[in-house]
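dude i think i finally got it to work??
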Amino acid sequence: MELKNKLKELRTARNMTQEAVAEQLGVSSQTVSKWERGLLSPDISLLPKIALLFKCSIDSLFDMELSWGPEHRREFEAQIHALHAQKDWEGVYRAWVREIELNPDCYVNYPDVMLHVLRKKLFGKEYIEKMISLADHAEKYCTNDDIRNEIFRIMLQLCSESKDPTIKEKGKYYYKKLPSLRHSREVYAKFVMDREEYHAQILQNIIYEIDRAECGVRQLITPDMPLEEKLFYYQKAAALYEVVLDSKYAGLYDTQLLSDYANIASIYVQLGNVEVAKKYINCIFEVLEKHMVEAERKNKSKLLYATTMPNSTSAEELCKNLLQNMLNSAELAQFQEKISKMLERYTEYFSHNE
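look at this
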């Protein structure tokens, strides 16, 4: 296909007018019109911009992709190897940038040049801004999540090295774009946060992960599961919270631990072991006692951070609901008097302190 036809095809495929293309490339609409009629050819310096605009390689503009395949790649890798041997880090950088400008849709190359800039500490504004422009382009057009997230991961580290506040802020942007689980975003928080903020984030991450793990363990429990197996999972779920809360006040996060304790007590009753069930009921009461002593409320676990996170329902309301549910439980009927007294005390205390 002739270049004139290729340019028109690419433009119309993206629903762009000749005026829009001209504005993006810094030329007149009459110039674009002449390109598409074959009266004029684009200046060679504009080819990389045209390729970037249409998300294609320069070769594809001339239908040369098939002739510029494995052989070109071998030649390019040999060039990079030679530049490395000479420790010509600027030359490596320029070679990678040229390669990407010639093949802007080959996104697998982007992390390589970004890693080179990071590892060789090419932290000048020119280098970082160029990497930001590549990252922004990949964010818009790269459809491979793994490549795009690898770019975000490198860029947040790279931007954190800049002394320019605007560039540092861009690093935070890439951090927030990175998925938290699959790509371990939390590992990279230190690159975009100050020491105090990072410490707080780590503490918050701990309780979030514990909360997620505890919920996951409980999801393994099914109604038709043998009581012994249910007991095993509830005890494992409770153990996760016991470690991080360290028998200290936990506010909102106490409620799930107490729910696990109530389920464990109920199962022990069904298994005929009332004495052990009684111990778990007492554990619930001991935790609720901490809620009604101001000094205990201030004594929080060092690993607990998010007890004061906004929530539509307060810890006290959740605990009162738990006690009410325990009162309605047939398995815990023999403990109803003690549960009722605790509910009365608990409700009265917080009604006086509102």
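Residues 195-219 form the longest helix (25 residues).
im so relieved honestly
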